[in-house]
Design brief:
Elements lengths: L10 H6 L13 E6 L6 E8 L4 E7 L2 E2 L3 E5 L4 H15 L7 E5 L4 E4 L5 E3 H6 L4 E2 L1 H15 L7 H10 L3 H13 L15 H8 L2 H16 L3 E3 L8 E4 L6 E2 L2 E3 L6 E3 L1 H21 L3 H25 L11 H28 L5 H4 L3 H21 L6 H14 L5
Length: 408
């Protein structure tokens, strides 16, 4: 596929060619162009001018950036991300960046620069507490769950939207890296040498394999809503000027993995990353921050359920979809979220694209944090069938992470 990649030299002319950016940034007064694409897939530039205006340009490459041209990947994912951004922003205003345009010829998105924001994962690594973000993310997932599912969309329209949002290439990445490769290494897995026995034990656990088979089935067959598809602390922005105990604005971004999938997947992904944050702080002996990180599990879940209950009276078909249906859905989604949390946290330890929370630890304490996450994931998977109380999730995490701490 032949198209020009954006770079520092051609971006001013490119901006001049996009009428949608008139009044948003002045191509003749650009003062800085910074490439910030530290993700795994795309080019991302922040462009600023002398008037204090700015824009983000995000371009999908025809391969996985983390690996290079040896792993081809359709740039059509840019169109799917733009569709998700616009759809989600309409349903959950204020919690998603504004999208100015999508250029199908260059597979480029022009979107709001979140000036004054930073990536939440980095803030958590530093031990900063941005209050309200976890609840915001729960409400965002609920807005999307209701507004893109048959609860809020006419059934015939919904079927067309499912087809429009088909994202097979990126779904396959999740299907392989999250659900399969931790148990069937094809050469992309890696851990500390001291954690290799833990990875081997994990990959051979028949109960975990069975649970991940069920999780993969749910992921591949439950086309419920236009989910984010990769919602973790690295795809959430928080206000940079608010430190410990401060309130925070919240923005979910990087939705290129969006597709019609199970509502519970985004919840489980967030929970997994809260546990990973807690594992870091347990390893460092910061028990208070670890406890705070695990408290985010309940905040996200409660925000999700509260918002769903606010929206449910507006459901399209109330003839047989009574209040008991919502309670049934909530119960099932919570059980599934346990499975998805288990899948997402273990994949970040053994698989490709690991979590900086753990990887930036000194090896002697990283060993215990990684071991704790792998063991916790198996506890969560097994108990997802018996006790899915949020308090049980937190209690398990606190106990298992503390018991596997090393280096002190």
């Amino acid at each position: 596929m032949d198209y020009e990649f954006l770079n520092q030299e051609n971006i001013p002319d490119y901006i001049r060619s996009r009428s949608e950016l008139t009044g948003t940034i002045n191509a003749d007064a650009i003062t800085s162009i910074t490439e910030v694409g530290d993700g795994n897939l795309n080019l991302v530039f922040i462009v600023e001018d002398s008037l204090g205006q700015s824009v983000v340009l995000k371009q999908a490459l025809p391969y996985v950036r983390l690996v290079g041209p040896g792993w081809p990947m359709t740039p059509e994912r840019g169109a799917r991300e733009a569709n998700a951004l616009v759809t989600h922003a309409a349903l959950s205003p204020g919690l998603v960046p504004v999208t100015y345009f999508f250029d199908h010829d260059r597979y480029a998105i022009g979107m709001e620069n979140l000036s004054g924001f930073r990536v939440w994962r980095g803030a958590l690594i530093e031990g900063l507490r941005h209050e309200g973000v976890a609840r915001d993310m729960g409400r965002y997932v609920a807005d999307v769950a209701f507004g893109t599912s048959v609860l809020g969309v006419d059934a015939e329209v919904h079927k067309g939207l499912v087809a429009q949002a088909s994202n097979p290439e990126l779904c396959k990445i999740t299907e392989d890296l999250v659900f399969a490769e931790p148990y069937d290494d094809i050469g992309r897995n890696a851990v500390l040498e001291t954690n290799q026995p833990d990875a081997d034990e994990h990959s051979k656990d028949p109960d975990m394999i069975r649970a991940m088979g069920e999780a993969k089935w749910i992921f591949m067959t439950h086309a419920e809503a236009l989910i984010h598809g990769d919602l973790h602390t690295g795809s959430v922005m928080v206000r940079a000027d608010h430190g410990n105990e401060g309130p925070s604005g919240s923005k979910a971004f990087d939705s290129e993995f969006a597709f019609y999938g199970p509502v519970s997947f985004d919840i489980g992904a967030l929970w997994a990353n809260y546990a990973i944050s807690a594992a870091r702080h347990v390893a460092l002996g910061n028990e208070e921050m670890a406890h705070w990180s695990l408290g985010l599990v309940a905040q996200t879940w409660n925000g999700f359920v509260e918002r769903l209950r606010e929206l449910y009276p507006q459901r399209i078909d109330s003839r047989v979809w009574k209040d008991d249906l919502l309670e049934s859905l909530v119960t099932r989604w919570k059980q599934e979220a346990w499975l998805f949390a288990a899948a997402k946290m273990s994949r970040r330890i053994v698989g490709l694209a690991k979590a900086a929370d753990i990887e930036t630890l000194e090896p002697s304490i990283r060993e215990g944090a990684a071991r704790g996450i792998l063991r916790l994931s198996r506890h969560l998977a097994s108990q997802s069938y018996t006790n899915t109380d949020i308090e049980n999730f937190v209690s398990l995490a606190e106990t298992v992470l503390r018991d596997n701490r090393t280096g002190h």
